[in-house]
Amino acid sequence: FGSKCVYKNIFDDKKYVEVYLSNDAEKLGLGVNEKIALAMLLGADYTEGVKGVGIVNGMEILHAFPVSKGVKEGLSAFRNWLDGNDFSDVIDEKGSCTNMLSKEQQYFHSKHKSARLRWIVPQDFPSKKVLQAYTHPVVDNSTAVFSFGKPDVENIRLFCQQKLGWDTHEVNRSLLPVVEKMETGSRQTRLDGYFMRYEDNHTISHQVKSKRLRDVFKKSATSAE
Q: What is the pTM of this model?
């Protein structure tokens, strides 16, 4: 959706909170179009994705069928390949390709031609509705400045009693300490105060283990420069 920063595992006590920055992804050749295309390939909230395609295959697909000029165009070209509508017409019995195909597509076909029998694609892939949901999300367009107000204690108490079945003691036990803390003027620590930053020089393993994924990241980053 074009966000600059995404947090993961915030409410999972067994995992570290992960922070993903858009400028880090862009260094790997992953702009907004590429992220949307990956969501449509791997599966996300709006789509089940292509069954059998994981992050490694997904990145290799984007390298062979770029989406930088349009998600629809790139994924449609991939769909044509998957359906056998293009490559079969221009590859001879020896597997030689004509100049109609890019070098990246020729290499992709040589490595993934058997995938046509294994990868299962949704009937409407790439779906116009799914693409529309990612590129034009329905959001609140209010420009009002967000600010915290004082809790409406009486209405909150009434809501908890009617909807949750809490008695007055239970509501007060949970609500009043929050109100008292707000009235003292104390501020909650910012979320980014708990992060390990690059400049702190923490020793954290961040190497991509998959050689195929390292290779495609390197190629994508080179293309983005």
A: 0.66
